[in-house]
């Protein structure tokens, strides 16, 4: 019974996915360590955090596609239709618009929560770009703009394949962790330590990265727990 | 029905207990007098020492014939300079800087200057109003020698020293802050009179104009420089007066002025004041670049030496070497010896003989006296110069060391009172919390009915406790009456504590263990506790433990409040979109989403407004337009609540407010001469009060029971009418009192609350259980109200520093200082946002019974009945809990470095918040109680 529920492919996918996320964040941390001075974290052209996270998310989507190939044969008509429409200009445009709107929304939220209105535009932009990359972009890359919207607002869309569902679940942890981390990062802002990394967006950027790392670790423990339980029951059996 | 039982009475008692507890706590934390230690201080010899190791010493005679202490209220360090006060700046013999201790308000500072001791923090509360007379000070000592001291200026001096001055001419009304010039003119007049006489030794002048300008118009007011010029004239007049030959003029400020004009806090601008010295034929200052810094309390012993009087017993200051230069070397050495000797005696009394004798400073003192003796014996010789310097340096370092030690040991807590106060506040708030959380089963938990047996037990317990305490000398009271009075709070705390313990045991015990005694099923929470709300609430409570978070508390509130509104908005939006999308199955999703967004556009407008409110202080340029605009919006909002006659009166009232501001020159208005304008101000305010009375009377006449009421006149309808009238009136008063640029906050507050409530309504239909889902909406709304109210409280410019209390609104339409009216107006102004939010919440709760289409109307239990059974108690609990927590924190932080600068003002603010809430709660519950039986009557009439 337990054995049948356990899906080796899925677990492999999950573990790869989580390790990709953690690796991305590790690379970010290493990069920050290498640069020493964190003041550049808020600038768009001078910081590599956004490109690193972008590549990491792309790799995760590619991973999902790689695992998705295996179940290509058992797709329903709707799923097939969706797959076919993936690279149409309409979908690409929709996806880009959605991400752009999300960036705007995040920038708005940043300003509501206390980012300066007159100034620090670049920093706000970088932060909201990072948040978009951590939360919305992976889903958009995976399913396209319309698909992402439906995942967000519908109960359970029919076109999502099993493998995509796995990835989406993991994206959720990533996104939630990122949002909470960035939100909680502001805690250092009022403290009177006088450190140069207390300047807005640095704690929020780092918080977002650490938060998504924690989210992934949480997801990872879930997967590992399920695996261990499976092995125990197998042994007992 | 059980859940409709009114809990107002219960809440009233709990709040009363809480307030009593916090007052007891404050009494214990800031003992108002040092009387219990003063008995021991009497053992300090008050005479000047005449003997040193068997050698006779001669105290120096007065070094000047006349001393003038010129105190300019709120003269901060950067005010006097070469341009603002040229004469004072150029001709000063010495320019020093004094460090002022907190609280930086006048009365404690005057105490420090005259007695040389640090003042108690609670003096700040006594600064306005009551002042105790001092027993010992420089002036007492002068009077003992029958020397003449005269005074002109701030009335506070006369309250402190009613009989010590030979002649005095105080301002009648030192607290009337709109007086910039008249009081100062009178001081200068009396200066001119006194200069002609020659009999006085000490003349004290205290000018208040600068402080008043700061309070009303901030530190950057254009009136400041002319005022400083006027003060410069005063200095010039004294310095150039021919008949004064041998004088010492000291120009100083009692405290500084914060950026913004207030004072009372701990910023460098408030705690640094200049001390400029002038005398004839002094060596002009060498214009040293670095100012020497001394403490304000150092002024007392130095002046005592110069005046040739005894140092006041309580003094713990050091000497200021620059001021002693007129003395001969021997005299100087005597001065240092005397002060060190005095401090040594104080240290012996305070810290104990044996302890003092084992310290290093005692060794220094011994060495200094030996060298001193040698100096006297050897007369002036080359070798004695070394001895002289060693003795002097040793004396100075002894004095400095002991001064620091003594000022640290001045902190005294009355732990008995603190424990009692904490016990009462903690038990009252926990009791309130438990009874709200287990709303439906309070009878089962037996929380809200008094049981005689338990009461007897707790009275007995507290009696035993008191007797044991007395026997073991832990509790000391001055009279029997006090110990009897102590029984009351003690037994209340015991009683509540027993209640809580029993309830907790019942809740935590497994259901089946004692089926006979306790309820057979497990007790469940009666309130839904949404995670996010309580996370934010917990963050808000626990960040009180950090001094930075208290200093920047507004940031916490803006962040959490906006987060809550945003999250609620996003959740509501998502829920709406999902719901609209169910049957469409993903097609046209973007269209639906944008339609829903458009439907909820208002909440985004509110969020934008909230961003704008952060920058409200920058909207200086368009303040006239802004004021008209916001008054209009406010009027349009209020029109919903009032009949046509009432709204006309409101409109006239608002027009008068604008005219009033125009007459004061704060907004653009028709040009009339200044004289006419100042004459018109009082009639204008009077006209406003007539409008106010009109609105009140019209509203009440409309709502009060009539002989033949229409059928829809239920209890909640009448109540709602009355409360609306109250809200309108309170908003009108606030509009009058609020600063011109802050008026925009009033309509914004109403709009924000309205829109957030709409968002919260969306939670009603989601949950499974009806009762629970109605309560969920209530909890959301209450929490949102608290957060929004606090956000607006801080938008207004309030903070946790005492220097941001705006005193100007207290004097609107007033021509003299009336403590009651000033207190009332300042309170309404400061806590306006909180008062209005609470009233609005109650009105909204009562109103929702006639809101259709939200889905709440059909619900059972009816929504509006929760006003007195749930909304008020929960609101009270949420207000009281953080305060109780903070009081506990205060005890933990009592030796913290920032205890008086950061934590103490906050505790005063917190307790005052509870008090204000208590008063508003009392008024509201009075209405709710009065109309309790309204409904059955009507039903009876109808049938």
From TrEMBL, chain A:
Protein topology in the membrane: Multi-pass membrane protein
Localisation per UniProt entry: Endoplasmic reticulum membrane
Assigned keywords, A-Z: Endoplasmic reticulum, GPI-anchor biosynthesis, Membrane, Transmembrane, Transmembrane helix
Transmembrane parts of this sequence: 15-34, 49-70, 91-119, 125-153, 173-193, 205-228
Involved pathway(s): Glycolipid biosynthesis; glycosylphosphatidylinositol-anchor biosynthesis
Principal localisation: endoplasmic reticulum
Family annotation (InterPro entries): GPI_biosynthesis_protein_Pig-F (IPR009580)
Signal peptide: none
One of the Pfam families matching this protein, by short name: PIG-F
One example of a Gene Ontology biological process annotation: GPI anchor biosynthetic process
Protein name as catalogued: Glycosylphosphatidylinositol anchor biosynthesis protein 11
Organism: Drosophila willistoni (Fruit fly)
Automatic annotation (TrEMBL), chain B:
Entry superkingdom: Eukaryota
Metalloenzyme domain ranges (all copies): 184-288
Record InterPro entries: Alkaline_phosphatase_core_sf, Metalloenzyme, PIGG/GPI7, PIGG/GPI7_C
Domain GPI ethanolamine phosphate transferase 2 C-terminal intervals: 781-920
Xref: Pfam families: Metalloenzyme, PIGO_PIGG
Gene3D superfamilies: Alkaline Phosphatase, subunit A
An example molecular function term from Gene Ontology annotations: CP2 mannose-ethanolamine phosphotransferase activity
GO biological process: GPI anchor biosynthetic process
Record's keyword terms, sorted: Membrane, Transmembrane, Transmembrane helix
Gene Ontology terms: cellular component: endoplasmic reticulum membrane
UniProt KW Flavoprotein keyword: no
Keyword Zinc assigned: no
Family annotation (SUPFAM superfamilies): Alkaline phosphatase-like
Sequence intervals crossing the membrane: 12-32, 415-441, 453-475, 481-505, 525-550, 556-573, 641-660, 680-701, 721-740, 779-796, 816-843, 870-895, 907-928
PANTHER family: GPI ETHANOLAMINE PHOSPHATE TRANSFERASE 2 (PTHR23072:SF0), PHOSPHATIDYLINOSITOL GLYCAN-RELATED (PTHR23072)
UniProt name for this protein: GPI ethanolamine phosphate transferase 2
Gene expressing this chain: Dwil\GK10685
